[in-house]
Write a structure and sequence with these properties.
This protein is mostly beta strands. The protein has four helices and 18 strands. The strands form two sheets. The chain has a 16-stranded antiparallel β-barrel. The longest helix is centred in the N-terminal third of the chain and has 19 residues.
């Protein structure tokens, strides 16, 4: 057995020992707060069920379970403090084998990530959520999601979220995926541009029409992600819209549009995204698909009459999740296809992934995953676990 094979065997063995010798972990903050199972909102965690989406949409509270005795009011109608500060943790660890030429073939990414989370009521109909990555891929990443959530503003179906979030959240939530493999088009940047559909700072408006099954989302963000220092790096703001419509009980279709500018010094990049998406849930199978076209029109800022260089990038995300016993399943299969095809060849990407999830406990899941890089004809094997407590 060669050195690489030996190291990889040790990697797999170490993770399996950790997995099968672990006891069930404590339940996270929301489950502790309401004394409910993680399965009430997740199937499996971190993927949200429809009821979990509703709880998140209520600002991470269950209105019918709210009691004044659970809060510190001190006789003040304007005070609604949590009696116990809700806090949870997430710990992800993986062993990775990757045969990419010139790269590390084996890696113990243990931990891959450790983060602290908190979410709950700030006041009546006002919630908050944030998490701090103490370690992500070996570095302190700091705050990622962090926002205040105003629910049912003026007694209407309007929700307002102010803070830092992912602009792809109205489409497919990257933080809630079951795979190690990511949704690549949302992370993709073109050239020197700092704009993509991952984390950004701004405001999100969500309006739901229950009678017709229609959801409308509006975004206004800085457009430069999480900068190293300061806030917005230029004078421009980016905006986006998403419209989704329930066709029937199993099918929802939507469309997304996003527009903005990025100041690249001597150049201005005018960026447009648009494309359809769908979600189809029938029986034990759920299929979600996204197609996006990104168009970058780059021109010299000091010469308005100069020619414009246009770069077009298309992205496809197609995901299928099989749950043999619906939300009571102990194991799940996920198939994921990613494609990014661009005139800017450095970002071209195409992978096919098959991932297996097994619940050791409601808040501890084992992951075995194989990804084929179709662009470069390489393979990646991942074995590990995700836990929340």
């Amino acid at each position: 057995m060669n050195r690489k094979s030996t190291l990889f065997s040790l990697c797999i063995g170490a993770i399996l020992v950790m997995l099968f010798s672990s006891e069930a972990l404590a339940i996270p903050a929301l489950a502790r707060r309401y004394k409910i199972s993680c399965n009430t909102c997740h199937a499996p965690f971190p993927k949200l069920k429809p009821y979990g989406e509703e709880v998140a949409g209520n600002g991470f509270i269950i209105p019918e379970e709210e009691k004044e005795r659970d809060y510190v009011t001190a006789g003040d109608d304007l005070l609604w403090l949590n009696r116990d500060f809700p806090i949870s943790a997430r710990f992800d660890a993986y062993g990775v084998y990757d045969d990419t030429e010139g790269g590390n073939s084996t890696d113990l990414q243990t931990p891959w990530g450790v983060k602290l989370l908190s979410g709950g009521a700030l006041y009546k109909n006002i919630g908050y959520y944030f998490y701090f990555y103490m370690s992500e891929r070996g570095e302190v990443a700091g705050i990622e999601d962090a926002y205040i959530h105003f629910d049912n503003v003026l007694n209407t179906p309007l929700d307002v979220m102010l803070g830092q979030f992912q602009t792809s959240d109205p489409l497919m939530k990257r933080e809630l995926r079951l795979t190690f493999e990511d949704y690549q088009i949302y992370k993709t940047r073109i050239g020197l541009s700092s704009t993509n559909l991952a984390y950004d700072r701004g405001v999100m408006l969500v309006y739901g029409i229950e009678q017709t099954g229609t959801d409308i989302v509006g975004l206004l963000v800085n457009g430069n992600g999480i900068p190293d220092g300061g806030f917005d790096q230029d004078k421009y703001k980016n905006y986006g819209f998403r419209l989704s419509q329930a066709v029937n009980e199993i099918l929802t279709v939507g469309g997304f549009y996003y527009r903005g500018k990025d100041d690249l010094g001597p150049q201005i990049d005018e960026i447009t995204y648009y494309g359809p998406d769908f979600n189809l849930a029938f029986g034990k199978l759920e299929v979600t698909g996204q197609y996006l076209l990104r168009k970058d029109d780059i021109k010299w800022s000091h010469t308005p009459q100069s020619s414009v260089r246009t770069i077009e990038t298309t992205g496809i995300v197609l995901e299928a999740i099989f749950a043999p016993q619906f939300d009571r399943s102990r194991w799940y299969l996920t198939a994921l296809y990613n494609q990014v095809d661009s005139d800017y060849s450095w970002v071209n990407y195409e992978t096919a992934t098959l991932s297996y999830t097994y619940l050791m406990a409601r808040n501890l899941r084992f992951i075995g995953e194989f990804t084929r890089d179709l662009e470069h004809e390489n393979n990646r094997l991942v074995v590990g676990f995700t836990s929340g407590f």
